[in-house]
Amino acid sequence: MSTVAAGFERARGIVPRPRGVWGFVLRRVLLGLLTLFLVSIVVFAATQTLPGDAARAFLGRNATPESLATLRKQLHLNEPVVSQYLHWLGGIFRGDLGNSLTGSQQPVTSVIGARIENSGVLMLIAAVISVPLSIALGAIAARRRDGVFDHTTSIVLLALAALPEFVTAILLVVLLGTSLFHFLPPVSLIPPGGHPWNYPKELVLPVIALVFAVTPYIARIMRASMIEVLESDYVEMARLKGLREQTVLWRHALPNGIAPAIQVIALNLAYLAGGIVVVEFVFAYPGIGRAFVGAVHNRDLPTVQALGILIAAAYVFLNVAADVATILVSPRLRTSLK
Amino acid sequence: MTPPVLEVVGLRVEVEGRGDDIVDDISFAIGAGEVLGLVGESGSGKSTVGLALLGHTRRGARITGGEVRVEGRDILGLSPAGLRGLRGKTVSYVPQDPASALNPALRIRTQLEEVLETHAFGDSRAARAARMREMLEEVLLPSDDGFLRRYPHQLSGGQQQRVGLAMAFACRPRVIVLDEPTTGLDVTTQAHVLSTVRDLCSAHGVAALYVSHDLAVVATLADRVAVMYAGRIVENGPERVLFRAAAHPYTRRLVEAIPEMSGRHALEGIAGTAPRPGQRADGCFFAPRCTYAVEACTIELPPLEQSGEGHFVRCVRHAEISALGVSERRPAPELPEPDTATTLVSVRGLDAWHGDRQFLFGIDLSVLPRQCVALVGESGSGKTTLARCIAGLHRDFKGELALYGKPLAAGARARSRDDRRRLQYIFQSPYSSLNPRKTIAQIVSQPLGLFFDLDHRETHERVVATLERVRLNPSAMTRYPHELSGGERQRVAIARALAAEPTLLVCDEITSALDVSVQAAIIDLIAELQREMKLGLLFVTHNLALIRTIAEEVAVMNAGRIVERGKVEDVLASPQDAYTKALLADTPSMELALAAGA
Question: What pLDDT is stored for residue B490 in this prediction?
Fold first, then answer.
């Protein structure tokens, strides 16, 4: 046995392994933090390899060598890569993501702060609508398997899944915003400093586009898992006990049907965090998606890095939450942790 | 005579849309406190009948005719709400597999409470809680809060089935349907559950329908027995009459297929298969497989005729056949004399682990050439682990293992090609041991390609010869496993093992997934192969009656140790170990049941 492995063997004996549900949650959170740490290295390395020099990109072709040198110093570009990374990482923990390289040189936090709020509201509304909607659609389709409802939802959802979200978004604009009807604003003009919840009409189309992007997947997995559950012996037994159909569905079938869908829900919500870029672009919605596109365009490295980490953090958080939720709805898994 | 609690008249269940009958012309009655055993092989429609008593059918089936009268009221005409009020309250159901019939996400308390709640049993929550605890005590389960807080997976199989019983008896039903409730349980657990069922039914005057494929279990429990074949009741009568002097040829063949511990009977299978819904021709459905069939049998389905006091038979020759009396059982052919000059396989001081847990402790065992050694014990006793160690499928063990006196490596990969060829393993379930994507010819020729240098023609000839050996028609070669019946699939698995020309066959519960008549045919085949091919057999089973027919020596396992070893006759006649005695006492036996009642 190698010495490293022997060391692990020893460590396993000495360090008590946290047990139970909370031990599991703790382990998952620690693993999530480790993932984020690795992501931060990748994000940093990726932005380092972007062609061109940030200082020159910012100051333009006519910059004097002196001003370039000053800016490089200010951005710590002269230091070794590792110390640049550590400086940046330390900044994250202090809530200092550096200054934006665009015009006003505001702190990144204040540049993207409002954008995060806008996108967050958009995502939250989309999630709050699409998750229960898709669970309900899937469950009802499973309950009325091979019926009209099942076939209709199945065709519509397949069609939605097949269309990329920018196509659905443009169709929505054409249908409800510009050519056919004029109910809703085709672009979401939320002025800087305004809160999105004060502009409900501006939110409708982007939310619908996101709901359309996410619902088909969750609904389909939900349908499949509910069909399996509805055919199970315990659901038949529940009916043979004389329980009302509602009790059978809500108490016996749904909790067991949701468990396999949770991972898919988490993946789709995480996808929202990235997919939002395209939808925001179509509607010119002032969220992180547009901020991201703009920052890459302007070589605004601190902003790109900050947003990269943010989206990665959303993925990690949602996956950890999904693992914990799966454990919580499956007693067999929960008790096996004890 | 009091009117029966349950009366079924002319019940018919069809395949939805096609109109083919799954079961038809089903009529019987059960009185208060009476247990009717409904026996039949898989696909005979016995579970369909059981579920119809609750007005329920599985997906794709529909009740289209007849009446199910509970205390005089036909329940088939009830509205959905009326049926809900009936189910679990007046007619209740105990499922086959308690592990899958209890909801894994709900605590035992919730699952028990909801039956009482939904039927508004008692006046208050407190009354229902009291009833729940009373029920748990009646089925001999703990009734404390700690137990009620548990989830199904935290209970043993026997406890799960007791929860099922508590649920079924909770609202004091008039009729109870038990659908093979002990199939997955060990004999000891089964014996306890059966005695609980019997006590509860007689104490509360419940009319019980006990659905089962196991005639020995039915014999120990039922007052009357109805035998189903291809969706019809072919015979219905008092238990003693039916098992002693059956008047239907099918019943007689079923009885002859049951292994008994008292003597070495030949087990005789029934050739052919039962016709499925939609393939049932005119005439008696059993006629094509019946040795008593005459021309009249093929013209129309015989009606259920009275043959004696409370005894009904669906056979044109029932008078002659019942006059035959108790069927004479042929003695089994002599077992081959083992070759004592060498030892085929020997195991000494074997300890085995699964992870950190030790499962086998100091096992000593040997099999001689041409000898059949049975390994018996309950689930978890370690018998399969031992078989897998010998076959090289489980490597985590310490101890000596030798083949013809030469040490045998742990794990099949570490063994020589010849060692691997000599030891062949047949798995429990033929439904999962055959690759569904390969034809039968490909499956059987696989070991030929591994162990022998044969050209295409020779391989083909060997496959044909091997299939004929296991009495399969070579026309099966181009078919896939799912096109075959369970018995045929197990024959393919045996053929695959034989193709390697082994000297030891390890048979791991090879008949436990099969019907009794199919089991009889497989056992008959294995015994014949052993005689003709001079094979050594390690026969793993939980069925003590089976070893009487096939094995020469037996090793009884309990909790990872061999507690008793000896000649089969000696061990069965005078067991020495307390565990063996308990196991024998708990094994349901038709003969004992009949003797006790006589």
Answer: 94
Q: Phi first, then psi: give them for residue A281, nearest 5 degrees.
A: -65, -45
Tokens (6 digits) for B492: 């393919």
Query: Which chain B residue's Cα is nearest to A145?
Result: B59
Residue in chain A closest to B83 (alpha carbons) equals A242
Low-confidence stretches of chain A (pLDDT beneath 70): 1-19, 50-54, 57-58, 103-104, 337-338
d(CA A54, CA A48): 9
In this prediction, residue A335 carries a pLDDT of 77
Report the mean per-residue pLDDT for chain A.
83
Burial A272-310 (b: 16+ CB within 10 A, else e): bbebbbbbbbbbebbbbbbbbeebeebbbbbbbbbbbbb
B416: left (phi over 0), alpha (psi -120 to 50) or beta: beta
Does domain A115-336 fall under CATH 1.10.1040.10? My reply is: no
pLDDT at site A134? 95
Residue in A262, A290, A297 with CA at minimum distance from that of residue A276: A290
What tokens appear for B322 in the block?
């019942």
Percent helix / strand / coil, chain B, rounded to 5: 40, 25, 40
Q: Which residue has the tokens 């239907």?
A: B248
Which of B179, B176, B164 has its CA nearest to residue B45? B179
Query: Distance from CA of residue A222 to its chain's centroid?
Result: 20
Which two tokens mark A104? 């006003």
Amino acid at B296: A
Alpha helices by DSSP H, B331-412: 383-391
For residue B379, report the phi and psi dihedrals to the nearest 5 degrees.
-65, 140
Write the residue in A234, A242, A330 that is nearest to B84 by C-beta: A242
| Cβ A144 vs Cβ A206: under 8 Å | no
For chain B, the first-to-last Cα distance in angstroms comes to 23
Answer yes or no: is the ipTM higher than 0.90. Answer: no
Which two tokens mark A30?
């620690």
Contact yes or no for B374/B554 (Cβ under 8 A): yes
- Residue B567, H or E segment: strand B561-567
CA B516 – CA A187 distance, rounded (Å): 74
Q: What is the CA radius of gyration of chain A?
A: 25
Give backbone dihedrals phi and psi of B273, rounded to 5 degrees, phi first. -130, 160
State how far the Cα of A158 lies from the Cα of A152, in Å rounded to an integer. 10
In chain A, positions 219-278, which contact chain B (CB-CB < 8 Å)?
231-234, 236-244, 247, 251-252, 255-256
Q: How far is CA B142 from the centre of its chain?
A: 29
How many residues are listed for chain A in this entry?
Answer: 338
CATH 1.10.3720.10 in chain A is located at 115-336
Q: Measure Cα distances from A191 to A118, A188, A194, B280, B389 in Å.
A: 11, 9, 5, 78, 74
Residue A181 near chain B (CB below 8 Å): no
- Mean pLDDT in each 10-residue stretch from start to end of chain B (598 residues)? 85 92 95 94 92 94 95 94 95 91 94 94 91 92 93 91 93 94 83 89 94 89 94 93 88 87 81 86 90 90 90 92 78 84 93 91 94 91 93 93 93 92 93 93 95 94 94 91 90 95 94 87 90 92 88 94 94 93 87 67
Q: Which residues pair with B539 in a beta bridge?
A: B374, B507
Distance CA A36, CA A15 (A): 24
- Touching check for A332 and chain B: CB below 8 Å? yes
**B105 touching A, CB under 8 A?**
yes
**What is the pLDDT at residue A18?**
58
**A81 phi/psi in degrees, rounded to 5:** -55, -40
Q: Position of tokens 């996400």?
A: B105
